[in-house]
Amino acid sequence: MATVEIKTLAWGMLYLFLLIVGSIFTGAIADQARYGPSRVCLLYIKDYKLENDNTYSFDAKSPACGYVVGMGAVGIILAAVLGAAALWFQIKGELRARRVILVYAATSTLYTFLVFVAACIATVGIKTTCEQLEAPQKNIDCATIFAHGFFLDDTSKNYGKNLATVYAGVSASWLLVMSWAAYSAFEFWNWKRSVQRWW
């Protein structure tokens, strides 16, 4: 009984970890790499320049934030669904059929690839943005510009952002990639060693 409880707890902690890291990744990018009612994306900004009225403007039309946040949300849902199903098998004391394990392995592998792409997009995106922001203002770093905030064309409201939080989200994305890759490899190992049951 103790062995079953420890195994159930271990599986539960694994899926909880994936869910928490996914939430940090998604929340950080959604909250600190976008601003305003239209959710302007601060990844891959272009044409950052000083205007005649002594304000800076830039082009922010990248769909990168949508993909990154979307993949983070998918990871949260996936961790919850796979976790609930796996724990149901554990609590019921039933072994997963070999084909079920293969579905887990294939699904986690596909998501690992998708979140890897999202991590690359987020990493390069914030690097590109900071290079754009710092180029015309060599005495001010990217974090300071984020803290000072951003404006929309149709309003004077200032949207201050925290670059450290964005970086935390980017770091979480790579932790998520490694975690899902390890989980995927573990499920394939489970599939290879499982008995030949297909029902």
Radius of gyration: 21 Å
Number of strands: 4
Distance between the termini: 26 Å
Question: From the helix content, strand content and strand pairing, which structural class follows?
Answer: mainly alpha
β-strand amount: 5-15%
**Spatial sequence of strands, sheet with the most strands:** 1-2
pLDDT below 50 for ≥5 consecutive residues: which ranges?
Answer: none
Order of helices and strands: HEEEEHHHH
Q: What shape does the CA trace take?
A: elongated
The average pLDDT is 87
Largest sheet: number of strands, sense, barrel closure: 2 strands, antiparallel
If helices are DSSP runs of H or I spanning 4 or more residues, what is the number of helices?
5
Instruction: Please bin the fraction of helical residues.
Output: 55-70%
Explained architecture:
The structure is a single chain. With 199 residues, the protein is mainly α. The chain is built from five helices and four strands. 31% of the residues are buried.
Sum up the structure in keywords.
two-stranded antiparallel ribbon, elongated
In short:
With 199 residues, the chain is mainly alpha-helical.
Would you spell out the secondary-structure blueprint of this structure?
Blueprint: H1 2-32, E1 34-35, E2 40-41, E3 46-50, E4 56-59, H2 64-92, H3 98-134, H4 142-148, H5 163-193
Antiparallel strand pairs: 1-2, 3-4
